[in-house]
Amino acid sequence: MKSTTGNWAALPGVPPLLSLLGLMMAWQVASQLAAIEGLPPVTRVLAAVPGIIFQKETLVDVGASLQRMALGFGLALLFAVPLGLVMGRSRAVAGFFNPLLTVIYPVPKAALMPVIMLWAGVGDTSKVLVIFLGVSLPLVYHSYQGARAVDEKLVWSAMAMGTGNIARIFRVVLPSALPEVLLGCRVGLAMALIVMVSSEMIARQSGAGNLLFNSLDMAQYEAVYVMIIVISAVGFVLDFAFEKLRERLTFWSTHRIELAVAES
Amino acid sequence: MIEIDRLSKSFATTTGATHQALADISLTVSAGEFVSILGPSGCGKSTLLYIVGGFVPGTGGQVRVNGKPVSGPGPDRGPVFQEFALFPWKTVHGNVMYGLLEQGMPREEAEARVAQLLELVHLKGFEGFYPKELSGGMKQRVAIARTLAYGPQTLLMDEPFGALDAHTRTVLQNELLSIWEQDRKTVLFVTHAVDEAVYLSDRVFVMTGSPGRQKALIDIDLPRPRVRRELLLNRRYQEYVIEIERLMENALK
Q1: Minimal CA–CA distance to B179: which of B205, B203, B155?
Q2: Could you tell me the pTM of the whole model?
Q3: Per-residue pLDDT tens digits for B19-56
Q4: Nearest by CB: A160 against B78, B130, B132
């Protein structure tokens, strides 16, 4: 083994830390060069983090956001995964739902928020509904792909052993498609966070997005950036935890499915 | 007993044309008989097996198993596929257990049956392994154990040793024979290997391709139990292999 200087840079965790450090340095330099109120130096923003995140108001708001996100995500899981799986196994069902999904897919879910607010008001229902929509689409799509790719011989084997039509979806199709379904969940998780924040920006009542915009209105620019950092951190932690869960659930899988950052 | 009666199968290709895969196939396999279906790739021999299994419908004629027309898969016909078709999310134990629980066997009895089957296929000690941790030969052993476990009277084997290396193939052929000789199940065995068909079978059904038709049906009159080493020197065995190879060459022409 060659020991060259700089091997430490290949340690896991070091490159991401370096990129984070680089970003902060660029931010610091930019804020000094630009010297505008809207871009406070990173040192001031970081110093403001503890004060803001331990405020009761922040905790309550972020908690409310996460609750809506969890509810929307959970509902989407219950609805979209079975739908996608059945679509993947039945050409008729796929033929019925595919055109609908193709139409809705490219619409930014936040753009539906005003309409949904007309029906369901500015409260939690609208926000949960729009998160549900945002998560459902990638989840249906990935479940559908996963179910379509199920090895026919597995299904046949189960049929010969007496597994009926509905049981087959849960005992064969779902576990077979699980790596792909969980990939959809991961995309859905990012989607949920995005839609959560944007819904709160539109229907401003409570939540992390509301807090962010309130700070902007009151020209508390450090607070704006702190909220952005908080939201990113929440996203990072959720994604990291979900990846751990995904690995545990699909360790038996022969091929690893990776997700590019750019998806969705 | 399997009765295949003037069976045909055609399907629409993606271009909209009709492709005839099987034409006018008739074959009766008696209970306890080992029959191989032999033919060049693409001759529809696997399709024929899938129709007997009830996985794919025929388009003409009829297939009856023990007198009943086949209308779908059932636990009376156990498939074994070339690519093993194990549930990758289940352990060896879980795979063999699956069919027993689906058939409503009480858990305790099923546990005993799984242990017995894993012993039979020499996989004792591998209960907790996942399919991806096993070699091809071991995977096929698990698949055979899984199918034998729920006790089908008929085995439908679709090139079961086709994905294995030569040595493993030989070992598994011998094991299959000794298992079969113990409790003579009806076996329909699809292969493209002439020596394998002659070594294992009571009769060999030779097919030609496009559309798949019967080319010949040959009785393999060799003593059982068969021992590979003796058989390889057996004049009659050699003649069967040569005769069928010649038929196969003609089948391609």
Answers
A1: B155
A2: 0.89
A3: 899 999 999 999 999 999 999 888 899 999 999 999 99
A4: B78
Record the tokens describing residue A109, joined without a space: 């879910």
Query: B53 and B109: one domain?
Result: no
Residues B167 and B189 placed together within one structural domain of the fold? yes
Query: Quick one: angle between helices A174-202 and A221-249, nearest 10?
Result: 170
Q: Which two tokens stand for residue B113?
A: 């049956």
CB B152 within 8 A of CB B77: yes
Pick from B51, B66, B69, B72: which is nearest to B1 by CA? Answer: B66
B30, B1 contact by CB (below 8 A): yes
Q: Cβ of B89 and A178 within 8 Å?
A: yes
Tokens standing for residue A145: 């792909």
Number of separate helices (H) and strands (E) present in chain B: 8, 10
Q: In chain A, what residues touch B53 (CB-CB under 8 Å)?
A: 156, 160
Report ipTM (2 d.p.): 0.95
Tens-place pLDDT, residues B61-77: 999 999 999 999 999 99
Amino acid at B221: D
Q: Which of residues 243-262 of A touch B (CB under 8 A)?
A: 252-254
Q: Which residue from B73, B88, B132 is facing A160, i.e. has the nearest CB?
A: B73
Tell me if chain B has a CB within 8 Å of the CB of A119. Answer: no
The helix (H) or strand (E) run that includes residue A110 is helix A109-120
Q: Do both B110 and B173 map to the same domain?
A: no
Count CA atoms closer than 13 A to A64's CA, side-chain side: 20
How far B89 CA lies from chain A's nearest CA (Å)? 6
Q: Is residue B18 part of a domain?
A: yes
What dihedral do alpha carbons B132, B134, B135, B139 form, nearest 10°? Answer: -90
Signed CA dihedral, A211, A212, A215, A216: sign only: negative
CATH for the A40-249 domain, from 1.25.40.10, 1.10.357.10, 1.10.3720.10, 3.10.310.10: 1.10.3720.10
Q: What is the token pair recorded at B87? A: 């549930």
The reply to whether B193 and B172 lie within a common domain is yes
CA separation, residue A20 to residues A11, A42, A241, B56 (Å): 15, 12, 20, 57
B44: left (phi over 0), alpha (psi -120 to 50) or beta: left
**CB within 8 Å: A159 and B55:** yes
Contact A160 B85 (CB under 8 A): no
Is residue B49 situated within a structural domain?
A: yes
Chain A interface disruption, residue of B71, B98, B103, most A CBs within 10 A: B98
Length of chain A as a residue count: 264
